[in-house]
């Protein structure tokens, strides 16, 4: 296996880490109004992800940084080609990050309500946006011989891409609801259970539909797609039996399986061309030189395990269920 | 106006805005960690109160640094895709290293610090803030190495087949003299900002609130002043080194920053000039003789190249084109950086003298001056970046890639205009919010953030 392929896998791994981890905190953010009905409820939910969401987001920063370093042409084509969706995602992430930090800083219901809206929107837009972007990467874009993406916004809103956005949104809502069931106590835990049941009704068919469409178009990832759907059903089953740890582990693995479908579908064409298949951006022509990839590999081999180690430790430190008493 | 102009405005606005928060994060992380260390060592509640108080202000600022940093990482690809494709092999590497080595550390451990007060042993909890501070300080190195490479590209070759820059020596990129010199300069400037932030807050509390914390704030005031002066020495020394590197690697930037039109030896340092840019001459120019020669070359009679001669040399080297950056902007940015930065450091020295041996100034205006040093230092920082970035024009990568060739070809004027509007409005609104929050917490004082703590008792976590 050549280094470019290794780095394609590394980037797939970074994105997968991001989607698994920030997936649940996006889910928690989207569920804020429905599961956290009162202030203690919302505080409980936010404190459940408080210690870890920032560290989760760095998986995205690293994934994008690694795309820049290892596949400059891919990084450039995706971010400039999907300009408006990416812009909305970035703005949403700005609002969201500030909202977590600022909502509790002034003791006023109106102040908190505004930041809560920022958390909901800031979680919903990226959850949908990343699904939309990856679906468009799978579907292909108007990219010509010069490597410039010329797709306009309506091109990016095809039924397939919209279904992709819905799939990640629904998946993360379910993932987040199960996380809350695992990590909280009291009324939030009760409501999270009900929310997980409702979310599953949407997530299973939508994710299943998107994966079926993807497998049909790309001809790869059948096993992972089936596994994803089975895992989602298993998650619902475990949740119903109050095996919350298993349920959350199952959706986490389901997110991994979805990611496997996406990245096996992409390889070796990072960005297929709708103009002419020959113009597709491939792993081979988008990658950096072996020297750069070698250095990145050495650094990642040493530090990625370390990062995973201390992040795991931070989850261990905050392993207790979160519960906020009503004032 | 075309997409290029707007993309440049957007880069300028988002970068300057980002850099309002970053120096404070870099410096204040160490200040807060030091305060907590002092608490750990002495067990004095006063240090715990100071840690919690400045810790709260630190977190309010930290959030802004993080979220505006995300915008930066995406912006290269969104607005500057041609640049990104050309340099990704070289420029992307330090960025990826920054995320992997520094951001993970910073973000994970800041979470542990915020929520770990009552969950971690004291010693381990202290280690978490140091880990976050190391992450903050380390991240600056990588981004500055990337920036230094744009000004003085080393350790690469352009692949003739792909037309893209290709890394050949990562060691050269990471030990680029411009990289470590800029790092020293920016780190020094960051600690000046953080020191003066502590000074401004402490001065305000001492001046307006004669509360039970005046002993504590006198202490933090002195600590802030000392930080400012020590860091100020670093800024001046590294600034001198930067000028010499500028003469060597970016002579046009230096010439423009000095409004030096013709090559001269020896040449004086300009204090005040009124220029005629079209006519390539200065109408008025008040100079201190020999100083520029000394700054640029280390010898009082050294030769410094002028704008007109450099333009001729570059035309021969790179072909026809305008290689002169915006002279008035650079000239005044240079003076603002040195003048305001020098004044801010001067306030530090003066403050240390005025507060010696248990004294505190009586006169209210002295506290006012202490508080004004903070915006002065921030303005000096911004002027420094304007000098660095505008001075690099018309290049994004000096001698390799023109700014005009760096912009995203597939992105329309409307798209950039839209995102520029969104960011400007968003950043404006967030600035108001952040200022309001900082003000509120400074007003509330340390009593607000710290309940009376018995020695050995558990301290509740900061909550969202």
From TrEMBL, chain A:
<dbReference type="GO" id="GO:0046872">
    <property type="term" value="F:metal ion binding"/>
</dbReference>
<feature type="transmembrane region" description="Helical">
    <location>
        <begin position="221"/>
        <end position="239"/>
    </location>
</feature>
<keyword id="KW-0472">Membrane</keyword>
<comment type="similarity">
    <text>Belongs to the cytochrome ubiquinol oxidase subunit 2 family.</text>
</comment>
<feature type="transmembrane region" description="Helical">
    <location>
        <begin position="246"/>
        <end position="266"/>
    </location>
</feature>
<dbReference type="GO" id="GO:0070069">
    <property type="term" value="C:cytochrome complex"/>
</dbReference>
<keyword id="KW-1133">Transmembrane helix</keyword>
<keyword id="KW-1003">Cell membrane</keyword>
<dbReference type="Pfam" id="PF02322">
    <property type="entry name" value="Cyt_bd_oxida_II"/>
</dbReference>
<dbReference type="GO" id="GO:0019646">
    <property type="term" value="P:aerobic electron transport chain"/>
</dbReference>
<feature type="transmembrane region" description="Helical">
    <location>
        <begin position="6"/>
        <end position="36"/>
    </location>
</feature>
<feature type="transmembrane region" description="Helical">
    <location>
        <begin position="291"/>
        <end position="313"/>
    </location>
</feature>
<dbReference type="GO" id="GO:0005886">
    <property type="term" value="C:plasma membrane"/>
</dbReference>
<feature type="transmembrane region" description="Helical">
    <location>
        <begin position="157"/>
        <end position="182"/>
    </location>
</feature>
<dbReference type="GO" id="GO:0009055">
    <property type="term" value="F:electron transfer activity"/>
</dbReference>
<keyword id="KW-0408">Iron</keyword>
<feature type="transmembrane region" description="Helical">
    <location>
        <begin position="194"/>
        <end position="215"/>
    </location>
</feature>
<keyword id="KW-0479">Metal-binding</keyword>
<dbReference type="InterPro" id="IPR003317">
    <property type="entry name" value="Cyt-d_oxidase_su2"/>
</dbReference>
<keyword id="KW-0812">Transmembrane</keyword>
<dbReference type="GO" id="GO:0016682">
    <property type="term" value="F:oxidoreductase activity, acting on diphenols and related substances as donors, oxygen as acceptor"/>
</dbReference>
<keyword id="KW-0349">Heme</keyword>
From TrEMBL, chain B:
<feature type="transmembrane region" description="Helical">
    <location>
        <begin position="127"/>
        <end position="150"/>
    </location>
</feature>
<feature type="transmembrane region" description="Helical">
    <location>
        <begin position="329"/>
        <end position="353"/>
    </location>
</feature>
<keyword id="KW-0479">Metal-binding</keyword>
<keyword id="KW-0349">Heme</keyword>
<feature type="transmembrane region" description="Helical">
    <location>
        <begin position="416"/>
        <end position="433"/>
    </location>
</feature>
<keyword id="KW-1133">Transmembrane helix</keyword>
<keyword id="KW-0249">Electron transport</keyword>
<dbReference type="InterPro" id="IPR002585">
    <property type="entry name" value="Cyt-d_ubiquinol_oxidase_su_1"/>
</dbReference>
<keyword id="KW-0472">Membrane</keyword>
<dbReference type="GO" id="GO:0016682">
    <property type="term" value="F:oxidoreductase activity, acting on diphenols and related substances as donors, oxygen as acceptor"/>
</dbReference>
<feature type="transmembrane region" description="Helical">
    <location>
        <begin position="365"/>
        <end position="387"/>
    </location>
</feature>
<dbReference type="GO" id="GO:0019646">
    <property type="term" value="P:aerobic electron transport chain"/>
</dbReference>
<keyword id="KW-1003">Cell membrane</keyword>
<feature type="transmembrane region" description="Helical">
    <location>
        <begin position="91"/>
        <end position="115"/>
    </location>
</feature>
<keyword id="KW-0812">Transmembrane</keyword>
<dbReference type="GO" id="GO:0070069">
    <property type="term" value="C:cytochrome complex"/>
</dbReference>
<dbReference type="GO" id="GO:0009055">
    <property type="term" value="F:electron transfer activity"/>
</dbReference>
<feature type="transmembrane region" description="Helical">
    <location>
        <begin position="15"/>
        <end position="33"/>
    </location>
</feature>
<feature type="transmembrane region" description="Helical">
    <location>
        <begin position="186"/>
        <end position="207"/>
    </location>
</feature>
<dbReference type="GO" id="GO:0005886">
    <property type="term" value="C:plasma membrane"/>
</dbReference>
<keyword id="KW-0813">Transport</keyword>
<comment type="similarity">
    <text>Belongs to the cytochrome ubiquinol oxidase subunit 1 family.</text>
</comment>
């Amino acid at each position: 296996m050549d280094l470019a392929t290794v780095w394609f896998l590394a980037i797939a791994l970074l994105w997968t880490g991001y989607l698994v981890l920030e997936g649940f905190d996006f889910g928690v953010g989207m569920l804020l109004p429905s599961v956290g009905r009162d202030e203690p409820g919302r505080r409980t939910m936010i404190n459940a992800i408080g210690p870890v969401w920032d560290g989760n987001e760095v998986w995205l920063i690293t994934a994008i940084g690694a795309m820049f370093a290892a596949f400059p042409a891919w990084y450039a084509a995706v971010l400039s080609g999907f300009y408006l969706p990416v812009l909305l995602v970035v703005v949403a992430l700005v609002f969201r990050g500030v909202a977590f930090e600022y909502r509790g800083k002034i003791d006023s219901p109106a102040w908190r309500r505004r930041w809560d809206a920022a958390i909901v929107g800031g979680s919903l837009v990226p959850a949908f946006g990343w699904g939309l972007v990856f679906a468009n990467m799978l579907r292909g874009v108007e990219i010509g011989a010069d490597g410039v993406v010329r797709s306009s916004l309506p091109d990016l809103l095809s039924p397939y891409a919209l279904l992709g956005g819905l799939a990640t949104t629904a998946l993360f809502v379910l993932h987040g609801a199960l996380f809350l069931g695992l990590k909280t106590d009291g009324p939030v835990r009760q409501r999270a259970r009900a929310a997980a049941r409702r979310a599953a009704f949407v997530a299973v068919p939508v994710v299943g539909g998107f994966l079926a469409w993807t497998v049909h178009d790309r001809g790869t990832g059948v096993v992972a797609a089936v596994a994803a759907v089975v895992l989602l059903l298993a998650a619902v089953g475990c949740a119903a039996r109050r095996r919350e740890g298993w349920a959350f582990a199952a959706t986490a693995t389901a997110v991994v399986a979805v990611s496997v479908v996406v990245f096996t579908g992409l390889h070796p064409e990072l960005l297929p061309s709708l103009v002419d298949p020959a113009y597709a951006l491939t792993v081979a022509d988008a990658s950096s030189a072996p020297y750069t990839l070698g250095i990145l590999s050495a650094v990642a081999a040493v530090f990625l395990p370390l990062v995973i180690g201390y992040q795991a430790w931070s989850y261990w430190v905050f392993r207790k269920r979160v519960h906020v008493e009503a004032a | 106006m075309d997409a290029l102009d707007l993309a440049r405005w957007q880069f300028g606005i988002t970068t300057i805005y980002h850099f309002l928060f970053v120096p404070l994060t870099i410096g204040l992380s160490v200040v807060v960690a030091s305060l907590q260390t002092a608490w750990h060592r002495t067990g004095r509640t006063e240090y715990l109160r100071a840690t919690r108080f400045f810790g709260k202000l630190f977190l309010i600022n930290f959030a802004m640094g993080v979220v505006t940093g995300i915008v930066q990482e995406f912006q290269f690809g969104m607005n500057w895709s041609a640049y990104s494709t050309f340099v990704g092999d070289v420029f992307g590497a330090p960025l990826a290293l920054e995320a992997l080595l520094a951001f993970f550390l910073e973000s994970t451990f800041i979470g542990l610090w915020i929520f770990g007060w009552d969950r971690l042993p004291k010693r381990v909890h202290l280690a978490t803030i140091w880990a976050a501070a190391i992450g903050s300080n380390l991240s600056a190195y990588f981004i500055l190495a990337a920036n230094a490479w744009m000004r003085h590209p080393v350790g690469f070759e352009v692949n003739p087949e792909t037309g893209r820059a290709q890394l050949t020596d990562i060691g050269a990129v990471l030990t680029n003299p411009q990289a470590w010199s800029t790092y020293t300069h920016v780190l020094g400037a960051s600690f000046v900002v953080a020191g003066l932030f502590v000074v401004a807050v402490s001065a305000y509390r001492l001046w307006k609130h004669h509360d039970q914390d005046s002993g504590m704030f006198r202490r933090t005031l002195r600590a802030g002043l000392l930080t400012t002066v020590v860091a100020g020495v670093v800024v001046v020394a590294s600034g001198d080194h930067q000028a010499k590197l500028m003469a060597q690697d970016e002579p046009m930037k230096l010439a423009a920053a000095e409004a030096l039109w013709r090559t001269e030896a020896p040449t004086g340092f300009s204090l005040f000039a009124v220029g005629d840019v079209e006519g390539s001459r200065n109408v008025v120019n008040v100079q201190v003789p020999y100083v520029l020669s000394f700054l640029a070359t280390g010898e009082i009679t050294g030769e410094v190249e002028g704008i007109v001669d450099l333009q001729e040399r570059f035309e021969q080297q790179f072909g026809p084109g305008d290689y002169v950056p915006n002279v008035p902007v650079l000239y005044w940015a240079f003076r603002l950086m040195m003048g305001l930065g020098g004044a801010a450091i001067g306030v530090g020295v003066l403050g240390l003298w005025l507060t010696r041996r248990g004294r505190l100034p009586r006169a209210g205006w002295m506290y006012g001056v202490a508080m004004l040093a903070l915006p002065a230092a921030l303005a000096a920082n911004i002027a420094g970046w304007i000098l660095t970035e505008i001075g690099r024009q018309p290049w994004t990568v000096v001698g390799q890639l023109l700014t005009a060739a760096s912009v995203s070809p597939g992105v329309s004027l409307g798209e950039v205009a839209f995102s520029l509007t969104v960011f400007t409005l968003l950043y404006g609104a967030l600035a108001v919010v952040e200022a309001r929050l900082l003000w509120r917490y400074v007003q509330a004082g340390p009593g607000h953030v710290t309940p009376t703590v018995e020695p050995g008792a558990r301290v509740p976590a900061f909550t969202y």
